[in-house]
Amino acid sequence: MPVVCVNDSKTIYETFVKDGETYAGRAQLTEWLEVVKHGQNGIIFSEGEPWREHRRFALRVFRDFGFGKNLMQEKILDEFVYMMDSIKADKKAGIINHSLQDHIDLAVGSVINSLLFGFRCSSNKKEDFNAQKEIIGAAMKDSGRIEALIMQSGAHKFRFLPYFRKVYYDIQKNRDKTWAYFDEHVQKRKETMDLDSDADPVDYVEAFLRQQHQLNLKGEKHHFTDTQLYGILWDLWIAGQETTSHTTAWACQYLIKNLKCQAKVHEELSKFIGSDRLITITDKPNLHYINAVVAETQRCCNLVNTNVLHRTLKDVKIHGYDIPKHTVIISHITSVLYDERYFPDPYTFKPERFLDKNGIFSWPPELMPFGLGKRACLGESLARMELFLFIANLFNQFIFKENPEKPINEERHLCGTIAPQQYTCLVERRSYGY
């Protein structure tokens, strides 16, 4: 299908931000979405009133759960402590080559699972979580294959073609497994919760089911269906798990491969923290270099190299070009993140680019990893908090080094989000003299 790509920062702001409503439509990938997630449900791929209604509802629910506040920080720090203790236990057991990604996945997964389903990925649920992560990971990997990208233009006819048939049915199979996972936990919540209770809901599923129940009692027409719930869980699980987990893993990899940068991180932590206490959001204004590391990680890893396709909802003109209504269009953020006008030497990891001459961090408008405008990531505040807390606390507790006998493969792993290759590293405890 023809797609208009907006490739520079200024034009992206002029279109997707200043005239955001016009560009808030979604490409009509009807057949493809039927294969991936039973249709144009959820928040990411929907549009119009269902999208507005469920985006508003999700933002309200997450705000009530403490997005960007101390309550959410406590959840994240609890998971960091579990992760730290697990790494220490591995060291005590004599493990030399540590798989950081496994620890990170579990910590991030526990945060999103507690938000959606009300439980963390404790030892008795670890196997369940890993199985679901593997299914989602396989689905994302298949979705990033060239066959899948071609199928987006009309998926069902490709199931008859030998080259495409396996990918088509693999994606469908993983969809059904994911839906079964969601259905199992939703049905458990239905069996145990009181739909008429006045108590605050403890997770997103409970909040959604209560809203569904109230609308049904009133006899009102609504979009709070079980299919819509599963579509939203699919969106939030992927957006909340894959992106944060992979970005944190990239940050660790970049600092392992750039030990001078890691030394600067440790120097800043020694100066402003000076102990192995937990770092909190109140420390963030003092940790300029760590903020720069997080920003440079998001720029370099470019996690979503092809943004979700938008659709114009009326005729527009961009730099003299007439763009008809219903044109598929994207803000090509990749081109901005690697644009030498904004980020000189763009393929080199250089956190210093975000610091002024006094070492003060600032976030430039050209850095837009969460998207912009009406369709910006609704979990941005949670992701920012998780990235800072996980990365700062990991490097406050540990020194990570590459094992020369097991070098890290820096090749980018193309799937729905850009994941680092699986790697292991050496881990040392930092010493604070006591």
What does this protein look like?
By secondary structure, this protein is of the alpha+beta class. The chain has one domain: Orthogonal Bundle (Cytochrome p450), CATH 1.10.630.10. It is 52% helix and 7% strand. The protein is built from 14 helices and 10 strands. The strands form 4 sheets. Strands 1-6-3-2 form a 4-stranded mixed beta sheet. Helix 5 packs antiparallel against helix 10. The radius of gyration is 22 Å and the shape is globular. The termini are far apart. Belongs to the cytochrome P450 family. One of its GO terms (molecular function) is heme binding. InterPro entries: Cyt_P450, Cyt_P450_CS, Cyt_P450_E_grp-I, Cyt_P450_sf, Cytochrome_P450_fam2. This is Cytochrome P450. Its cofactor is heme.
Task: Tell me briefly what this model is.
The chain has 434 residues and is an alpha+beta fold. The chain is built from 14 helices and ten strands. It is globular, with a radius of gyration of 22 Å.
Keywords for this entry:
434 residues, alpha+beta, Cytochrome p450, four-stranded mixed β-sheet, two-stranded antiparallel sheet, 7% strand, Cyt_P450_CS, monooxygenase, metal-binding
